Amino acid sequence: MRKIFKKIILPLLVVLAIIAFAVALFTVFFDQAVLVRKGTIYRVGGTNKVVALTFDDGPSPEWTPKILDELNKAGIKATFFMLGENVERYPEIARRVAEEGHEIENHTYDHRVLIYYKMDELEKEIKEAEKIIKSVTGKTTRYFRPPKAWLTGAEKKKLKEMGYGIVLWTLNSKDWVNFHDKQITSYILRNIRPGDIILFHDSGGVFTTEGGDRSQTVKTIPRLVRKLKEKGYSFVTIDELINTKGNNN
Questions:
Q1: What sections of the chain are H helices per DSSP?
Q2: What residue ranges do the domains of the chain occupy?
Q3: pLDDT given for residue 22 in this prediction
Q4: Catalytic annotation, pick one of 102, 107, 111, 201
Q5: CATH for 33-242?
Q6: Residue tagged active-site, from 56, 175, 181, 202
Q7: Active-site residue, 56 included
């Protein structure tokens, strides 16, 4: 048994550990959204120095209010791609987002990866979130962001038939990794271009749709906004950004 362990089991465990480590590195340092951008909106063209801040997976009773406070202090509006189930759980937070003038859009009902769905299941998932968001906030969602960015070509076609624009992002803050706010800000400032869409999260852990530590996200907002304003940038919602000058598909 010991020989089998040394010759077969131990090497296999080493290989699996290497694969797991490689997958973790890929997830943390590579933004897979770049692989599925075709047929989506991920930035706009032009030279107008405008950018859109977006927040996924909320609302959260802990982090969304803190993020809203920072956005209010900065005097800017953002776009929140909400989960239907979290809107159901925390309707008062979702209403606050709407009441303070931020844009609310669709991020599915429960954050399942959609590439496994049949078309009728996809439509049900989107419509359920749409219905809940409308009933709680009064807002009708027009743009959709898929969990993890993954969508098939057929799903993209279906969503467009449903009247949805598909929105990804240009820059991923990777705030769920818990990078320091200075690191997040530095990365964005090095890569920012006019018309970019920046991804943050106001809820969600690595493997859950709730929880997670968004303290660095909260700290990033005032620092990033201040520095981008110094560079001449202004902040708009997704709908405002898209309507400034078309979009890159």
A1: 2-4, 10-29, 63-74, 84-89, 91-99, 119-137, 153-161, 181-191, 215-230, 238-242
A2: 1-30, 33-242
A3: 38
A4: 201
A5: 3.20.20.370
A6: 56
A7: yes
